[in-house]
Amino acid sequence: MAHKTKKKIFNSTTKFLFLVVTIFLSIFAIKINLMSQNFEKLREKMVSEQLMTRDITSKVVLDAMLTVPRHLFVPEDIQDFAYIDRPLPIGLEQTISQPYIVAFMTQSLDPLPGMKILEIGTGSGYQAAILAQIGCEVYTIEIFDELVKNAKKVLSKLKYNNVKVKCGNGYIGWQEYAPFDAIIVTAAPDKIPEKLIEQLKDGGKMIIPVGNQNSVQSLKLLTKKDNEITEKDLLSVLFVPMLE
Fold first, then answer.
1. What confidence tier does 12 reach under pLDDT thresholds 50, 70, 90?
2. In total, how many domains does the chain have?
3. Nearest to 185, CA basis, from 129, 110, 106, 100
């Protein structure tokens, strides 16, 4: 009799624990779903209020900004702020650029599916993800190994298999895969690195902030034609310095 009673109690306890775990997982799933829906609404608001009301008109850029989950590229404790109109810290004194700047720099390159693009300054991996979402073949270099690991992890999770990430010195570019249809630089050197100009395809474009880290920099658009470079100043910006 005692044995049967213990077995009955065990079965009841097991069923109760199973019920508790099931309820917990259901609540957790609902919470995750609500959070996902909330981030999607924030992303829609970001695109409609921060980009479309300014000068971002490229459909491929707007679609990419609407699709890529920006909150996954920032530290978990500040994910609620991922879609506001400002840069955010990602560690090691580096930042993820504000959404408008990401969209503006991307649009300036006139990206198309299949283009081979070099990015200097992987950071969180968000800019690379935007280009990958458009369908570009992205090669991105980051000097901090910790950021490389983090970016690879998120990009892999989101299945952006058209992105190659490496830890290295952005000043020397990535000769192995040159020339590139376009180059995007997300950190500011004092002057434009010659190696990057050399690795830019004839007819290609490079967008790069240039200037001292203690002052306002100039976001420049370079176009290479018949080995001649033309420069155009686009915006006054403030980026972290480009390190080597």
1. low
2. 1
3. 106
| Residue 90 is assigned to a structural domain of this protein | yes
Is the separation of the CB atoms in 129 and 73 below 8 Å?
Answer: yes
Query: Which residues are bridge partners to 95 per DSSP?
Result: 89
Q: Give the model confidence (pLDDT) of 172-212 as tens digits.
A: 999 999 999 999 999 999 999 999 999 999 999 999 999 99
The predicted-structure confidence for 123-174, as pLDDT tens digits, reads as follows: 999 999 999 999 999 999 999 999 999 999 999 999 999 999 999 999 999 9
Q: Which helix (H) or strand (E) holds 211?
A: none
Query: How far are the Cα atoms of 13, 69, 91, 161 from residue 152, in angstroms, in the given order?
Result: 44, 15, 16, 10
Half-sphere exposure of 154 (CA within 13 A, CB side): 24
Residue 219 to residue 192: CA distance in whole angstroms: 11
Where does the pLDDT of residue 36 fall: very low under 50, low under 70, confident under 90, or very high at 90 and above?
Answer: low
d(CA 45, CA 84): 9
Question: So which residues are the catalytic ones?
Answer: 97
Residue 240 is given by DSSP the state: P
Would you say residue 36 lies in a domain? Answer: no
- The DSSP secondary-structure symbol of 77 reads G
Please indicate, yes or no, if residue 44 is contained in any of the structural domains: no
Euclidean distance between CA atoms 8 and 119, whole angstroms: 64
Evaluate whether residue 19 is within a structural domain. no
Give the separation between CA 198 and CA 201, rounded to whole angstroms: 8
| Residue 53 structural domain | 49-237
Element (H, E) at 158: none
Kindly report the CATH number assigned to the domain that includes residue 105: 3.40.50.150
